[in-house]
Amino acid sequence: MAKAYITRYSTNSLNWQRLSSGQALSVLGHQDGDGIALDLADGEQAETEAFDGPCLCRIVIVSGDAQVRIAKDADADTGELWLDGTTDQRYVRKGERVAIKRAA
Do residues 55 and 9 touch, judged by C-beta distance below 8 A? Predict the structure, then answer.
């Protein structure tokens, strides 16, 4: 079964300036809360709760390809394809969710 692991990191004013201008971040902030593990069953969307504030999320996809979408009303069917083993950091705004679905 494919899985997704999401770890939330805090942002600070320096990171916010870099993120908003499209610059890469060399260092993540501190981990903010427990990590989230999502099981990706065939045909079913898994998603986080809406985030209560802006943050950086480190997302890792293992044991299968997946579609990932970050939005307030996230629909993974319209998400970006992430191949098995992909690890990336994405900025998530207040009120947005991370939705993930195993790719067909």
Answer: yes
